[in-house]
Amino acid sequence: LNHEFHYSLIVACNSPCLLKIRKDVYQLFDRYCHLSLLINENSLLLNHNDHCEIAKTAINRDKSKACILTTLHLENSLNQVIKALKKFL
Questions:
Q1: pLDDT digits (tens, 9 = 90+) for 63-74
Q2: Closest among 83, 1, 76, 72 to 39, alpha carbons compared
Q3: Structure pTM?
Q4: Which runs of consecutive H residues, i.e. helices, occur in the chain?
Q5: Which residues of the chain, if any, have pLDDT below 70?
Q6: Environment class of 46 (CB within 10 Å of its CB; exposed 0-12, middle 13-18, buried 19+)
Q7: What is the DSSP secondary structure assignment for residue 1, as one 8-state letter?
């Protein structure tokens, strides 16, 4: 569902090259996100809340706010992954 949510935000870009790059990056990063979610159950709720806010701004066609929220969402996900991986070091 996470993949479908993020894909739905950009599928209308009409750029096969951009969609391919996004798919490749997503596949590499997704495995680490799953690890983070397994370690920190709270991440799932935070992720869901982020998605709700991003969806609202996308529906309202507020591009700048949607970009800001998406960037923060991805940064938060990355930070959760880093935090989860540090537990193994």
A1: 999 999 999 988
A2: 83
A3: 0.78
A4: 2-10, 16-39, 42-59, 63-86
A5: 36, 39
A6: middle
A7: -
